[in-house]
Specification:
The chain has 10 helices and 10 strands. By secondary structure, the protein is an alpha/beta fold. The protein has 2 domains: about 10-255, 3-Layer(aba) Sandwich (Rossmann fold); about 260-300, no CATH class. Strands 3-2-1-4-5-6-7-8 form an 8-stranded mixed sheet, with helices on both faces. A two-stranded antiparallel sheet has the order 9-10. Bound molecules: nicotinamide-adenine-dinucleotide. Nicotinamide-adenine-dinucleotide (NAD) binds near residues 38, 151 and 200. The site of nicotinamide-adenine-dinucleotide has 34 residues, from α1, α4, β6 and α6.
């Protein structure tokens, strides 16, 4: 098959100074994309730090012959999101794809975390993805081949001590599905990755995971093994929208949200639910949820 090339394409990758985002930016640039490497630095839980990983990533990309500029704005504010997109337009004159990857992480029992922290997690993961996507939208429409790649997590499906993080990622799942519908008429495709890779987030997750998992991931599941899926989803040839891919260590699968065949009983009572719970929950005939794409207006 033809090599998927990004010549003449401009891509923003948020949180691209390190970890997964950096691997995405490096692969995209190696394939010819001009890349905005966005990263405000900061500790894994979002605490500010005096670091500039975006500049380091840009130096590595340009040193290897690629095209990239750094942006240290935060995805978590409207001004930051607008500045990130403005960087793409002023440096490269267009914008074709956005990879919403920036993220913060911590493991804490839910009642121990102050309510303000829930806001921080929403601001970076959910509202960060909303804000950058909104600022980018007119340019993605103009591209005619706009692509958005969001980042969710297996944590949105329910894991110990990650209510703040997992529920913010769940919001990004809903954003992905609904932006896929909103983008359909403009040729914009919106998908998400639920990644697994041995980044600094795994150092933080170590005690919450089964023994040895974080160490195994650091050794055998580098971010570079997730990057090919991000590149495919950011490419003109991406053939899907509204999908979520689990990606780790070379394994790629579709995450399906679906409905069971269930039961239908016009005389439904609470006792029916109790008695037929097994049938309601049975997963032998699950239908994946479909996107409700807008129907063209009559005569259109
Ligand atoms: N590593 C995994 O196995 C894993 C699993 C599930 C989901 N994820 C998600 O993948 C994404 C990348 O994570 P990673 O593992 O590479 O972690 P990482 O900490 O190495 O990278 C995240 C980057 O985002 C940047 N960032 C944080 N807040 C920002 C903001 N407001 N504006 C701009 N940049 C900001 C950080 O400075 C950091 O460089 C995150 O969204 C994370 O939640 C990772």
């Amino acid at each position: 098959m033809t090599r998927l090339d990004f010549t003449d394409r401009v891509v923003i990758v948020t949180g691209a100074g390190r970890g997964l985002g950096r691997a995405y930016a490096e692969l995209l640039a190696a394939r010819g994309a001009a890349v905005v490497v966005n990263d405000l630095g900061g500790a894994v839980d979002g605490t500010p730090r005096d670091e500039d990983p975006a500049a380091e990533a840009v130096a590595a990309i340009t040193g290897a012959g690629g095209r990239a500029v750094a942006s240290t704005a935060s995805v978590a504010t409207e001004e930051g999101a607008e500045a990130i997109v403005a960087t793409a337009i002023s440096a490269f004159g267009r914008l074709d794809a956005v990879v919403n990857n920036a993220g913060i992480y911590s493991v804490r029992p839910w009642l121990e975390l102050p309510a303000s922290k829930y806001q921080d997690f929403l601001d970076v993961h959910y509202l960060g993805s909303v804000r950058v996507s909104r600022a980018a939208w007119p340019h993605l429409v103009a591209s005619g081949q706009g692509r958005i790649v969001n980042t969710v997590s297996a944590a949105m499906l329910g894991v110990p001590d990650m209510v703040h993080y997992g529920s913010a990622k769940g919001a990004v799942y809903g954003l992905t599905r609904n932006l896929a519908v909103a983008g359909h008429a403009h040729g914009i495709r919106v998908n998400a990755i639920a990644p697994g890779a041995g980044t600094r987030m795994m150092d933080e997750a170590k005690d919450a995971l089964p023994p040895g998992t974080a160490e195994f991931m650091k050794e055998h599941m580098p971010p570079s093994m997730v990057a090919p899926v991000a590149a495919y989803l950011a490419h003109d040839d991406c053939a899907v929208t509204g999908e979520v891919f689990n990606v780790a260590g070379g394994a790629v699968s579709r995450l399906v949200v679906g409905s069971t065949a269930g039961i239908s009983d016009p005389g439904l009572t609470p006792e029916t639910v109790a008695e037929r719970l097994g049938e309601i929950l049975a997963v032998d005939r699950v239908e994946p949820a479909e996107l409700m794409l807008p129907t063209p207006a009559a005569g259109a």
